[in-house]
Amino acid sequence: MSDARPGHPALQVRALNKSFGTFKVLTDIDLSVDQSEMVFVLGPSGSGKSTMLRCCNRLEEPDSGEILVGGAPLTGSGVNLNAMRQRIGMVFQSFNLYPHLTALGNVTLALRRVQKLPRETAEAAAREALDRVGLADRAGHHPAQLSGGQQQRVAIARALALRPEVMLFDEPTSALDPELVGDVLAVMRDVKAQGMTMLVVSHEMKFARDAADRVIFMDGGRIVEQGTPEQVFGAPREARTRAFLGRLHG
Amino acid sequence: MDVFLDTFLNPAVLAKYAPAILEGAVVTVILSVLIVLSGIALGTALACLRAYRVRPVSALIVVYADILRALPPLVLILLFFFGLPNVGVTLSASLVLYVVLTLVLAAFAEEIVWAGITATPKGQWEAARSTGLGFTQALGHVVLPQAVRMVIPPLTNRAIAITKMTALGMVIGVPDILGQATTAQSFSANASPLTLAAAAYLVLFLPFVIASRWLEARFSGPGG
């Protein structure tokens, strides 16, 4: 099932530490995601999984540690953060589409302003990205005219259009009505099938079981356990993992 | 009743001074347009500058906005007009009125636009920055357009309130609507020119007041 390329890390996190004030959110996180691998991060709320994800494009600034994308440093002095961020797509729980722009405008903004593509080229790339998420016919719609699921798919297209090497998903379906979740997961599955490296924080256990190459369980700001979905869901080694999965399944 | 009509709506006086009031209206319109454009532009620029959160700069902007909002504009007009010549700067009455009201409107506009910027969800900044936009680009292309839309109703109300204050120019001899009307009133010893002035203000400002009501309904409704 796995298309991952072991030994070819797309994203590396080394000795990552992060505190909010006196509260230690992340402790010595080490993580490597191979090219085309989909890694799922599970854990109770407050376990630091979202903070860890947000450190991976420096929306949260790590206190210490090193992050590499495609072998290039994201942390440290002299890093061109805006250039690096184009190599890392981010999808948010609350979509965060720009409400004053159409779906097409949402996707073209960074193509035009950051990558400096001419309008026609940017719009062609944006239409292609919208087509990939099945929303080519909604290009002229504003976010308010789209369903939550459609908005999230536009947000995925916005990230995809920049042709990132890694995509980060921060609870991409948590804000959606249950009947809209499937469309977004189908798009994510499709993005993975085309070889994207993906780091996903989500509570969609069934999807994790079906689609993930690796599952990571976090608790108390540490990686407690990791393995294939079969290992982690079928035979968790750690008591904390068993307790968490037990609570989820009632 | 005749006394009333003769005092406020004397046909001969109205006819005689209507051209002067009309000239005054042109001055009022030109001043108002210039004040609104430059006041809102300056206020928006200050609000954007404040968004960079450079502490000394933000502090200066806050002090400026607070002082200019606290002082009665007439005090500033008199200070500028009668005070500045003593230090060798002589501005025409119209220029003093323009500068003072622009600065006052900018102070209010800065606070209003700043409120819009801070009310824009943090996720909008994050989405923009995550695609590689720099701070200035995120502000200019994502946050400011939303902030300005959000604050159009209060901004319109404030712009109307400040431009009405062009009438204060009368005190230093600006030949605007009220300036012309008071001159005419003292020459004619009759209040009809003031009636005409009131009518002129209504014609100029009532459409904007109605428009602001419409904007308020349109932008503050559900899903605005």
Would you mind describing this structure in some detail?
The complex is a heterodimer of chains A (250) and B (224). Chain A is globular and about 55 Å long. Chain A has helices at 49-55, 81-85, 103-113, 119-132, 148-160, 178-193, 205-211, 229-234, 239-248; strands at 5-20, 23-35, 38-42, 64-69, 72-73, 88-91, 166-170, 197-201, 214-219, 222-227. In chain A, α3 (103-113) runs parallel beside α5 (148-160), α4 (119-132) crosses α5 and α5 packs parallel to α6. The longest helix of chain A has 16 residues, at 178-193. Chain A has a single domain (11-249), classed as 3-Layer(aba) Sandwich (Rossmann fold), CATH 3.40.50. By secondary structure, chain A is of the alpha/beta class. Chain A is built from 9 helices and 10 strands. The longest helix of chain B is centred in the N-terminal third of the chain and has 41 residues, at 11-51. The radius of gyration of chain B is 21 Å and the shape is elongated. The model of chain B has no long low-confidence stretch (mean pLDDT 94). The chains are: A alpha/beta (250), B mainly alpha (224).
A few lines on this structure:
Chain A has 250 residues and is α/β, with parallel strands linked by helices. Chain A is built from nine helices and ten strands.
Features:
heterodimer; A: 250 residues; alpha/beta; Rossmann fold; six-stranded mixed sheet; four-stranded antiparallel sheet; 9 helices; 36% helix; B: 224 residues; mainly alpha; MetI-like fold; 81% helix; elongated
Q: Can you lay out the helices and strands and say which pair or pack?
A:
The complex is a heterodimer of chains A (250) and B (224).
Chain A: E1 5-20, E2 23-35, E3 38-42, H1 49-55, E4 64-69, E5 72-73, H2 81-85, E6 88-91, H3 103-113, H4 119-132, H5 148-160, E7 166-170, H6 178-193, E8 197-201, H7 205-211, E9 214-219, E10 222-227, H8 229-234, H9 239-248
Helix pairs in contact in A: 3-4, 3-5, 4-5, 5-6
Chain B: H1 2-8, H2 11-51, H3 55-70, H4 73-83, H5 93-119, H6 122-130, H7 135-150, H8 152-164, H9 177-188, H10 192-220
Helix pairs in contact in B: 2-5, 2-8, 2-9, 2-10, 3-5, 4-5, 5-7, 5-8, 6-7, 8-10, 9-10
